[in-house]
């Protein structure tokens, strides 16, 4: 009887939890089945299950750095869904800038052209890069280290049944589709712009034939100019423009010779596809997840576990489950239990794993052609408040593509 009443109470509570969120891991006993007894990690933020225009999504972030360098957002509207994952390095300034500006640039260009397309995504990335470099130029004199701050940038938009994805760096979008015998199959939608990849090293050498040190191994890791692993990013101005070079007082970022041409670029890899009935979900995540989970392992975790169930003690959102599976693997690699890893404070935690962001977008195909009543909201990782989304500019595009969206 009590369990039945609890289920009714929870059903009544569910519509409210969008605005009254319980998002920090409180040490409950809902995850004893996970490796390493993944209980009560205070550095994890989450939203277990929310609505978007084509289904539901799950969102989770874990902090490892003293200051969180991952920034992320999900924007929902009645006609479209936007996901952004921005994995910063050198500091949070670039990833925060992207989170504040990329989606707005996307909406501006979509409004001007009356559509969303691969070229619109490229334009939004270009405008964001240009804006951040202007910020660097304004502040370089008083804060030269701003030139060494950058961010990977992964963005995805679902609009009119088509998925558009653009990427700089090594964050990754992976789609889970049903194959033969109803087995889920992983397909990576993005290209990793990381010097660990042979094709990236070849690309760099072909672009810089006169620089024998454009990419080399340092301390067992392939790095561009011996400094950075990613070959494309927003920011990192010191590797793009000689005017932002850093002197020997910044030994980690000092280049013995000034650059003749940009070493890194902000030209994204862009991909689009019409979503098919066998496409069941998309995982967007920073590289901290993929360092510990393969694409196939990740999609199997999503496929083999429920999104969420009604009874409170059983609720365990799939993004959080992916996150903790990765953390359990990070602990295993250090020959420790996750129960011990979760006690490690931020800052020190970075020696064990990176900041990690995970967004899982479920694709409910019966909704793809429907006008869903979905709140137009903006949800940001590790931010408690929910803000209105600027997706309102998309309204009306279906009837008049030149009007305000």
From TrEMBL:
One GO molecular-function entry: metal ion binding
Keyword Electron transport: no
Pfam family for this entry, one: PP2C
Entry EC no(s): 3.1.3.16
SUPFAM superfamilies referenced in this protein's UniProt entry, alphabetically: PP2C-like (SSF81606)
Gene3D superfamilies according to UniProt: PPM-type phosphatase domain
Residues of the PPM-type phosphatase domain: 56-363
Enzyme class: hydrolase
Family as reported in the entry's similarity comment: Belongs to the PP2C family.
Protein name per UniProt: protein-serine/threonine phosphatase
Gene behind the chain: LOC116207824
